[in-house]
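Study this chain:
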Amino acid sequence: MARRRQSVTIKHVAADAGVSLQTVSRVINNEANVRPEMKERVQASIDKLGYVPSIAAQRMSGSRSYLILALNDRQRTIEDWRAREGSDWVDQMLLGGMLKCAEHGYRLIFELVDTHSDHVEREMKGAIAALQPDGVVLTPPHGDNAQITGLLDKYKIPYVRIGARAREGALSISMGDGILASRATEYLIEMGHERIGFIAGAREYALSQWRKEGWLETMQKHGLDTEGLCERGDFSFASGEASARTLLSRSNRPTAIIASNDQMALATNKVAHDLGLKVPGDLSLISFDNTPVVRFVQPPLTAIDQPVAETVSQAVELLIRSQRGEEIPSMPVIVDGGLVKRQSVAAPPRKK
């Protein structure tokens, strides 16, 4: 009777082929130092037994685990999941990372880490010990967490930092947040707006400051006043609601607002309607991220599209090329996004 597929192990393959476990592992890992006839013999046993290589078998050669670990913020992700709002960032991250890993014979493992936790180092050590990743993708704000990067440096595990502050010698990718904020501001100015408000994100995220600077520098370039036009949220709906209410309750309120993520933009849209303001008749609105929900709100929101899938795909590519000793581009790598124009932007109301 043939063995069931799930019961077949690397030991069965080695016994059937009459070779060592190490030799089977080298064949599984497609290493160069295996004679063609030996490779054919082992492969024939793998095919005959229906063996599916395990991660443990891939590690036996002592070279690679073929695992890339991607870290995301625990608190924010779990809050989205519990609210049953999903997370387009996570979906796009997995899409780009998994497809690129599969292209090179790797697997992407997704872990949540709370950057504020006192247990960050313990959690990271546990993940490293269990997974032995060949590389790590650090999403914001983990790339700026010295505990995390210090531990990875200590264990000599390569990593790519997405949306983190510049650091010499580090693999880094940016989605051009400042440039995109500037692009959104320029668009509003072209539409005739002069009083353009801005709702910034949480301070711990480097990209929050980049986005604010993109807005601020563009306003200053055009000689436009920015006093009283910037409020700070933390990317949550509640913080966006508070910030928008502050901006829109001022006597000389803005005629347009750029919000640093979709949740804060949705909150701004709600506050505008609560105050009896028409969007875009009285207030034009631009968001960051361009998650699916902004297409279905009324009106559909103009948004900066963040190329998350492509960014994580390139992060994985950088890690694999770095491990192979291949040439890598100069840092940081910039993955450009775009402005998706919808119905939430129009010319400002005429001055009375």
